[in-house]
Amino acid sequence: MTPPRPVTLTVTHRFKASAERVFDAWLDPAKARHWLFVTRPNTPLARAEVDARVGGCFCFADLREGEEVEHRGVFLELDRPRRLVLTLSVPKYSANVDRVTVEIAPQDTGCVLTLTHELGPEGEPWRERTIQGWAQLLDLLGTWLDTAPHG
């Protein structure tokens, strides 16, 4: 278990999709590459690799100015469809490793996702930008879920 980090931020998003569909969109590389860490609209990631088990690693690579920027981590907890916890780092920009907890609660015909991102003390200047980034990615996930075929 990774110790709590001093900078914590939370983002909440409501989805029309089931908790199962939202949960699976994090772990299926064919789905995740359309929204997770995507920085350019309508441009899937260059690479998405996921070993979806506790202790398994993931790597999502976005292409920026011809160079791959990797988002790497390890799954710490997986409890489908309600919770996943992972470490997160972007080695190109920092050696820091953050912790992200995703909790998904069924609600009416959809679900509510609450994401908690824990950063080290060096993360404080990045708080607002990180909140905005997650909010944009979760919006993108919602749009993708609304238009993608079920399955």
Summarize the SSE layout with pairings.
Layout: E1 7-15, H1 19-27, H2 29-32, E2 47-50, E3 57-64, E4 67-79, E5 83-88, E6 98-107, E7 110-119, H3 127-147
Antiparallel strand pairs: 1-7, 2-3, 3-4, 4-5, 5-6, 6-7
Which properties best describe this structure?
40% strand; alpha+beta; 3 helices; 7-stranded antiparallel sheet; 151 residues
Q: Could you explain how this protein is built, in words?
A:
The protein is an alpha+beta fold. 23% of the residues lie in helices and 40% in strands. The protein contains three helices and seven strands, in the order E-H-H-E-E-E-E-E-E-H. It has helices at 19-27, 29-32, 127-147; strands at residues 7-15, 47-50, 57-64, 67-79, 83-88, 98-107, 110-119. The protein has a seven-stranded antiparallel β-sheet. It starts with 6 loop residues before the first strand and ends with a helix. The mean pLDDT is 92.
Would you kindly provide a brief summary of this structure?
By secondary structure, this protein is α+β, with helices and mostly antiparallel strands.
Structural class: alpha+beta
Query: Biggest sheet, open or closed, and with what strands and sense?
Result: 7 strands, antiparallel
Helix content: 10-25%
Q: Helix and strand string, N-terminal first?
A: EHHEEEEEEH
Using the CA coordinates, give the radius of gyration.
15 Å
Give the spatial strand order of the biggest sheet.
1-7-6-5-4-3-2
Count up the helices.
3
Gross morphology is globular
In terms of quaternary structure, what is this? single chain
